[in-house]
């Protein structure tokens, strides 16, 4: 027989975090890094992210500085854009940007023979981007890294957690070797909920 735990709606997240902390036990993450990992586990129910998350030493400070400076957040898919806490971001003056479905993006992708995710990143380099968050498309993450390496794009933090079987793990392995601030989760697992969780954790820390 299933026994449900009575709990007030406003206490569900707090209790969820308590359960995660109890079941996970001690970690080597800083408190701020753990806030990101904990929210990713909360969003997915997958404790494996405690083993796969990687943080550049300046990732948290760079992300918080970008948010507090009122910079925008670029994300690869509209589902992710809808999940980011826009109210929290707006307090600092920033906006969420996603260009993947825009007609100009579709046209650019067709003209260049690339994915819409690739084209959307290329079209966003002048949008005062502080944080790039990629949870769906490895091609978007690869394009971001290419643009940064070429000196054409300079976000403060790259959150790269694309999911899948074609170039997802490889793109994240490349990101983990970069000298600039990043947050990633190695391997095939990831996804838009993980990218959104990381952004929302940073917004709450800010």
Automatic annotation (TrEMBL):
GO terms for biological process, alphabetical: cobalamin biosynthetic process
Keyword hit for Plastid: no
Domain of life: Bacteria
Domain Cobalamin biosynthesis precorrin-8X methylmutase CobH/CbiC: 11-204
Alphabetical keyword list: Cobalamin biosynthesis, Isomerase
Pfam families reported for this sequence: CbiC
Gene3D superfamilies reported in the protein's UniProt record: Cobalamin biosynthesis CobH/CbiC, precorrin-8X methylmutase
EC number: 5.4.99.61
Pathway: Cofactor biosynthesis; adenosylcobalamin biosynthesis
MF-aspect GO terms: precorrin-8X methylmutase activity
Entry's family note: Belongs to the CobH/CbiC family.
Name of the protein described by the UniProt record: Precorrin-8X methylmutase
Taxonomic lineage from the root: Bacteria, Pseudomonadati, Thermodesulfobacteriota, Desulfobulbia, Desulfobulbales
